[in-house]
Structure prediction request, 138 residues.
Amino acid sequence: MLKFWHVLVLAIVILVSLSFYADENFLYAKQNRLQWEIGNPRVNAMLHSYSASKADLGILTDYRLIQFLPGFEGHFETVDLSDPNAFLSGIKEPNITHALLPDSELPAATAGFIRHKLGTGEYTLVGQAGGYFFIRVR
Prediction:
């Protein structure tokens, strides 16, 4: 029985000692990497690669998991895209520069509006991934 307690105390001492050697930057980097895997990794990768060079990014979307992606705090607005009026009023906000929208499930009025703007060149398609398309609106 005495040996068990010696092993237990030794294990506790080792664990406590190792906790002082854990590199905080390593842990933050790992957490950051894991956050990019939340939700749809293909959509996240598209956002990550584009956002790295854009400081003025303001995204209108229904992709609610964007709130968990590092660096997007304060750079998005979520909206219920089943309501065409919510989209149209949201896209007019001065801080909105982009929209991340699902390929399907958009109301006909919203989809038609977006197709028209893309056709006239007012909006630019930035990318498509994982069932979403990403457009620049300003």
Q: What stands out?
A: Residues 1-35 form one domain. The mean pLDDT is 87. The chain has five helices and five strands.
